[in-house]
């Protein structure tokens, strides 16, 4: 795990130097180490990576396989790289990692109030660990992030005309449909596209968070309804097969949610949050909700992954609202807890990313 901690302390060092203007070059060098650790990993890093390697090698067969027929987008991508371009899996993985990191960098540029801290949170309690194993869903999540970024950029330019909003919405729906052909769970993102222009008051974010937390009380009913839409191949991963929901994974989103809605305030004395931060508060509430439901069927936690980037935006944003001395103490405490959480969740964890190896260290996989 030494490589991960080197990257984490690299970000902490830059964070400690103080806030500087985040030029494109600084963002590039901030994201670069994470891209390298993702792109250069071997097939043995990540519990699901070997299955994606197998699917990649058998890309032609996957085009007509019954168990993957509902996600043709990913099959076509694998077929294009393996059978048309003829590149080995490590090149394919590097290209996919570049795409994920590039979109993440743009997302952080437009949303984050402190990119170094956001990256630190992304790796420790965000979806970085999942990205090292769940390649398909990570691609789907990244594609779903594009209309979110587009909406933020349009808002930064002073808004857009109604016809431009229509085209943004249409393209957003098409992107989510494309993402759902890579991982079917992406379809959950379509309703979000219609909520990107909302602005929430602080009181509304508190109410939404209370509702999200309360879903733990009637999760059985909600899970029963959602179970009707779950693909058969995911139903086998029930709570008795070693995928038990980690209690920390339940408590952390709730703690983050309460911290952010209770401490943060809209900027400049305004009554409502900006569209971007209103959306992030909604994302956080959805993440809490799906984590609560995962106590009864943990595969529902997959849906929460689409909204976990709210952590990396709202925590730095909320910390800015604290007085100087208090902010320093709370920031140190959060950093410490993030490191502990990352170590406990990664060391000998179910995602199996702790024993890191570069792709050239396992030459058996180099040429396929």
How far is the first residue's CA from the last residue's CA? 27 Å
| Number of continuous helical runs | 18
The fraction of residues assigned to DSSP E strands is under 5%
State the order of secondary-structure elements, H for helix, E for strand.
HHHHHHHHHHHHHHHHHH
Indicate the radius of gyration in whole angstroms.
20 Å
What is the approximate shape? globular
List the helices and strands and how they pair.
Blueprint: H1 2-16, H2 24-39, H3 49-57, H4 59-62, H5 72-85, H6 89-111, H7 115-124, H8 128-131, H9 135-156, H10 162-180, H11 202-214, H12 219-226, H13 232-235, H14 247-263, H15 275-293, H16 301-304, H17 309-319, H18 324-346
Helix pairs in contact: 1-2, 1-7, 2-6, 6-9, 7-17, 7-18, 9-10, 11-14, 11-15, 14-15, 14-17, 15-17
How would you portray this structure in words?
Helix 9 packs antiparallel against helix 10. With about 375 residues, the protein is mainly α. It is built from 18 helices and no strands. It is globular and about 60 Å long. Helix content is about 65%, strand content about 0%. About 0% of the residues have low confidence.
Q: Brief overview, please?
A:
The protein has 368 residues and is mostly helical. The protein has 18 helices and no strands.
Top keywords for this entry?
368 residues; 18 helices; mainly alpha; 64% helix
């Amino acid at each position: 795990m030494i490589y991960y901690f080197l990257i984490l302390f690299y970000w902490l060092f830059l964070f400690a130097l103080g806030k500087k203007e985040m030029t494109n070059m600084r963002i590039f060098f901030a994201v670069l180490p994470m891209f390298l650790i993702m792109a250069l990993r071997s097939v043995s890093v990540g519990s699901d990576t070997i299955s994606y390697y197998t699917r990649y090698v058998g890309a032609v067969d996957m085009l007509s396989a019954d168990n993957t027929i509902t996600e043709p987008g990913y099959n076509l991508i694998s077929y294009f790289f393996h059978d048309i371009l003829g590149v080995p899996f490590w090149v394919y993985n590097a290209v996919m990692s570049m795409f994920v990191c590039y979109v993440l960098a743009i997302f952080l540029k437009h949303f984050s109030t402190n990119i170094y801290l956001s990256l630190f949170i992304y790796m420790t309690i965000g979806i970085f660990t999942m990205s090292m194993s769940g390649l398909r869903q990570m691609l789907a999540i990244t594609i779903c992030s594009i209309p979110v970024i587009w909406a933020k950029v349009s808002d930064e330019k002073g808004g857009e005309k109604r016809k431009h909003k229509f085209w943004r919405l249409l393209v957003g729906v098409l992107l989510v449909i494309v993402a759902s052909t890579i991982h079917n769970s992406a379809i959950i993102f379509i309703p979000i596209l219609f909520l990107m222009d909302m602005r929430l008051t602080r009181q509304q974010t508190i109410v939404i968070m209370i509702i999200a937390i309360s879903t733990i009380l009637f999760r059985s009913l909600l899970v029963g309804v959602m179970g009707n839409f779950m693909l058969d191949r995911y139903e086998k991963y029930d709570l008795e097969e070693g995928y038990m929901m980690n209690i920390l994974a339940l408590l952390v989103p709730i703690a983050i949610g309460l911290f952010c809605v209770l401490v943060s305030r809209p900027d400049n004395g305004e009554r409502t949050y900006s569209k971007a931060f209103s959306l992030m508060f909604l994302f956080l509430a959805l993440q809490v909700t799906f984590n609560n439901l995962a106590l009864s069927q943990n595969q529902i936690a997959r849906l929460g992954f689409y909204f976990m980037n709210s952590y990396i935006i709202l925590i730095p944003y909320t910390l800015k609202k604290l007085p100087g001395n208090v902010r320093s103490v709370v920031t140190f405490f959060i950093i410490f807890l993030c490191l502990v959480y990352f170590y406990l969740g990664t060391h000998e964890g179910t995602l199996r990313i702790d024993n890191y190896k570069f792709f050239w260290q396992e030459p058996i996989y180099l040429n396929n």
